[in-house]
Specification:
The chain is an alpha+beta fold and about 350 residues long. It has a domain of about 240 residues. About 50% of the residues lie in helices and about 15% in strands. The chain contains 13 helices and 7 strands. The strands form 2 sheets. Strands 1-4-6-7-5 form a 5-stranded antiparallel beta sheet. The relative contact order is 0.16.
Length: about 350
């Protein structure tokens, strides 16, 4: 217990230092093609944008800043909304009307933050274990704990902008139309606030670890520094990479969402194994040494993904049944991008 108290003090000290386009109301998206599990090419659903925020004022159905922000680049959003800050995050949600979509996007935001913090810790632990500076038991314990830490403290995170779209989705098989509202939110977080969010999350993780598996103080400080850096320098994806991430995420979701809670973990593990195996066929270069062969076992599928350097794989690996609404909204976002 004394060791963990000492580590928490070290975390707080480290954080203190670290922070010194259409003319009509409807806009039709292009129809995509995708392969099902048997490899047969099938038509995807069509999405029609019927209305959107600012339409009567001349705003485009798919603004330039919107497409960039979905892919992880907030430069145009900063200029468009005249906002600035240290850390930027995007949340999304969908519902039957604008209000319900707004509520879901706000609820989904905490999960967005939790997934990103979980990913930073897991990648850090995997790399430390690969180099031999953290033992495998500690790495595994950290991964298990972060999987259960699905909520975070977001006090002080400022919602600076919102954009909504009213869309009709046409089922490719039945032709049935389903109307929904999808709403996107941009949050700005000052460095000190993000440091607090990060510190509290790490404290929760450390508090759940067995005493004999608690990382050394230096490792914890380095972990927090890496988490801060990851947040302030988000990875910008290409449309193809983002599409790949959502495809993997949907597979993870389908493996879990219809199952009882006690079955979800096993289903997620099985899907992780498949994703890890697919890493080799998706032009992914495993960034590791000869130990790679040892971490490709089923029990270490998450480690293989974290060492892969593929952000689409890493992001998908943190998806749980709680993320279904967010995933639905992000799939709409990708379907309407030019």
């Amino acid at each position: 217990m004394k060791k963990q108290v000492f580590l928490v003090a070290g975390i707080l000290t480290g954080l203190a230092v670290f922070t010194s386009c259409v003319s009509t109301p409807a806009s039709e998206t292009k129809q995509a093609l995708q392969a099902n599990e048997s490899g047969t090419i099938v038509a995807a659903n069509k999405t029609y944008i019927r209305d959107w925020k600012g339409r009567t004022l001349g705003t485009k159905a798919v603004p330039d800043w919107f497409s960039s922000a979905i892919l992880g680049n907030f430069d145009q959003a900063k200029l468009h909304f005249k906002i600035d800050g240290d850390v930027f995050k995007l949340s999304a949600g969908q519902g039957a009307d604008e209000r319900s979509a707004q509520m879901r996007a706000s609820m989904n935001y905490a999960r967005v933050v939790a997934r990103e913090l979980q990913q930073s810790i897991d990648v850090f632990a995997a790399e430390k274990a690969r180099t031999g500076s953290m033992d495998a038991k500690t790495k595994q314990a950290i991964e298990e704990v972060t999987q259960n830490q699905s909520h975070v403290e977001i006090t002080g995170h400022e919602k600076k902008a919102e954009f909504w779209q009213m869309v009709d989705e046409e089922d490719a098989l039945t032709g049935k139309m389903t109307r929904k509202y999808v709403l996107y939110q941009i949050y700005v977080i000052p460095a000190k606030t993000w440091a607090r969010t990060t510190g509290l999350y790490v404290r929760k993780v450390l508090g759940e670890l067995p005493e004999d598996l608690t990382p050394e103080e230096k490792d914890v400080r380095d972990m927090v520094k890496q988490m801060m850096s990851d947040a302030r320098h988000p990875v910008e994806m290409s449309q193809q990479e983002k599409k790949q991430e959502l495809e993997y995420s949907r597979k993870m979701m389908d493996a879990q969402v219809k199952l009882a809670p006690q079955q979800q973990k096993a289903a997620a593990k099985q899907e992780l194994v498949k994703i890890a195996q697919n890493a080799k066929t998706d032009r992914t270069k495993i960034v590791a040494d000869a130990k790679t062969k040892q971490v490709e076992a089923k029990a270490d599928a998450l480690t293989t993904i974290n060492l892969s350097g593929n952000h689409a794989l890493r992001n998908a690996a943190t998806i749980t049944a709680e993320d279904e609404n967010w995933l639905d909204a992000m799939e709409v976002a990708m379907s309407v991008m030019p």
